[in-house]
Amino acid sequence: MIIDCHGHYTTTPAAHQQFREAQLAGRNPAPPSISDDEIRESIDHNQLKLMGERGVDLLLFSPKASAMEHHVPDPTLASAWARTCNDLVHRAVGLFPDHFAAVCQLPQTPDGNLKACIEELRRCVCELGFVACNLNPDPSGGLWSGKPMTDESWYPLYEALVELNVPAMIHVSTSRNTTVSTLGAHYLHADTAVFMQLIEGDLFGRFPTLRLIIPHGGGAVPYHWGRYHGLADRFNRPALAGHVMNNVFFDTCVYHRPGIELLLSVIDSNNILFGSEMMGAVRGCDPRTGIAWDDTKRYIDDLHLAPERAREVFELNARRVYPRLDARLTAAPQLL
Questions:
Q1: Does domain 3-335 have CATH number 3.40.50.1390?
Q2: What crossing angle do the helices spanning 225-234 and 187-200 adopt, rounded to 10°?
Q3: Of 69, 277, 312, 315, which residue is the catalytic one?
Q4: Which residue in 17, 78, 118, 250 has a CA-CA distance of 20 to 30 Å to 107?
Q5: What residue segments make up the domains of the chain, in order of their start?
């Protein structure tokens, strides 16, 4: 089975974005009216089509990351927007239950208040069957004005994640910093910055069963693997294998074969989850090969991994990191 751990609903019907625009304009809109047929059409010819062409069986599906817009400070607005986004993803998963599993957006705001986030997490997991959440380490939107993810202010959310037995994917939203591109810099900077925060702190000493997925191939981390080992030693931190890597996982959203090869040669395959972020940040095809940039499965296939290692990356690691997904698949063997 091929499980893609990183997908966003980037093709939502127009009424969804119109609702958001009305929200931001202060018009207090009613929930958008979107039919099941509109949802089907938005997915049938997009994500589902690509999954069929690329041999992907199941996609972990979350709201569009750049549209989370956690920099908007109004907590009421944030909660209404997260709920609307999550409800739409829930409906999409319900229409395509054999192909999608839901990952939720949290109503984060720059003030760092997590009460509403925990409430929405519980609603999505306990009532709607979501298997994970996306967690923004910088709700200020590229200004990095909050606390590092190892700070105690984050602990109530981590306690909820551990209690519910769901992981979090570290994923920022739009950059408000005009010198830092959202897609080309802010995303990768966040991945890299959070990994260093985890080295400097002791988050997993406090939460030994907490699981975090750092997407986009781990940002700069695999490329500078020696630097992070050296910094851990310089700062008298424990070895990375036990200090961080029992709890942190990277996905394969790396958009050329040499990058995928580097990732799989540096990072233990137990810590790698297949992901593509299809129809996300990087679209179109490499003109040299004609291959879609985000067809990361093809790059992995080209490496001819040993069968047991390929199965770890494509299926088994995801089932281990996302226990609620594994329980769902075990209960429905026809999906396997």
A1: no
A2: 30
A3: 277
A4: 250
A5: 3-335
DSSP SS3 for 49: helix
108-126 confidence digits (pLDDT tens): 999 999 999 999 999 999 9
- Return the residue matching tokens 């974005």: 17
Residue 219: both structure tokens together: 């940002």
Cα separation values, 174 from 134, 177, 212, 255, Å: 14, 9, 21, 21
Element (H, E) at 33: none
Cβ–Cβ < 8 Å for 12, 60 = no
Mean pLDDT of 254-272: 96
Provide CB contacts within 8 A for 178, sequence distance 6+. none
pLDDT tens by residue, 128-153: 999 999 999 999 999 999 999 999 99
Q: H helices of the chain, where?
A: 14-24, 36-44, 47-54, 75-95, 115-122, 155-164, 187-200, 203-206, 225-234, 240-243, 257-266, 296-301, 307-311, 317-321, 323-331
pLDDT digits (tens, 9 = 90+) for 265-295: 999 999 999 999 998 889 889 898 888 999 9
- Residue linked to tokens 């695999």: 222
Query: Between 36-44 and 47-54, two packed helices, what is the crossing angle to 10 degrees?
Result: 40
Residue 171: pLDDT band (50, 70, 90) is very high
Amino acid at site 134 = N
Give residue 336's pLDDT: 53
Nearest alpha-carbon partner for 107 in 30, 198, 23: 23
DSSP for residue 127: I
Residue 69 a catalytic site member? no
| Amino acid letter for position 236 | N
Q: Would you state the structure tokens that stand for residue 228, as one six-digit string?
A: 């992070």
